[in-house]
Predict the 3D structure of the following.
Amino acid sequence: MLMKTLFLGILLWIIIFPQDPSIVGKWQLVKQTSCIEDEISMDEESEALISDMKTRGKRTSQIIEFKDNNNAEESTKIINQRKSYNSKGMLYKFDGTSLYMLDKRSRTIIETFVVEKFSSDSLILSNSARACETKVFIKIK
């Protein structure tokens, strides 16, 4: 009887207070869009040029790892496009609706991303300064 009550209590706890997915882990960039499509008139020649430019992109896996201690590491420049801070290691703050990239020294916000979708296995971010720039990630670990 005690085991049944304990089991039902744990089950009820899980149903009432579901675990939120965590951003901690390794995420691979699978798709990104830029504002170039919005800035030029799209005809067949422009679409072919944009498609060719995308195929000439990096062929290595682009991975970002978010760690428990609010540190993040990128395999290549994915999130931070600025040269002013280290491309390998950075600080982040994630509140579920926004992802903030922080300067390591001053801890000020360098870049802000709006979370379009977040689940245990996918993450879609758009740059708050340029909403037409989006990045789609899948969780690999």
